[in-house]
Amino acid sequence: QVQLVESGGGLVQAGGSLRLSCAASGSIFSLNAMGWYRQAPGNQRELVAAMTSGGSTNLADSVKGRFTISRDNAKNTVYLQMNSLKPEDTAVYYCNLNFPLTQREYWGKGTLVTVSS
Known about the structure:
This protein is mostly beta strands. The chain has strands at residues 2-7, 10-13, 18-26, 33-39, 46-52, 57-59, 67-72, 77-82, 91-99, 104-107, 111-116. The strands form 2 sheets. Strands 2, 4, 5, 6, 9, 10 and 11 form a 7-stranded mixed beta sheet that branches.
């Protein structure tokens, strides 16, 4: 069984920064992708950023230049550094881990990010 534990959400003023962390535990195959999705009230869940175990990244256009994703494969941990935050970044951020070979994926419980104007 795989567990994802997120941390780092909170309340920040517009223009501020936050860093999210997500640690995975359990049966982690070496070939995987970890990333972050977000869901604002009334909206669908959307991809924010993802990074494969090989280092390839995918960032949503809305966060390019402001957010950076990184990971520590030895710790099975992914990070999301969020700078220049905007009120429209307010959402629950969910950590995602997926294994392309088995097509299984796992979700964290989510962490709330609130950006005040």
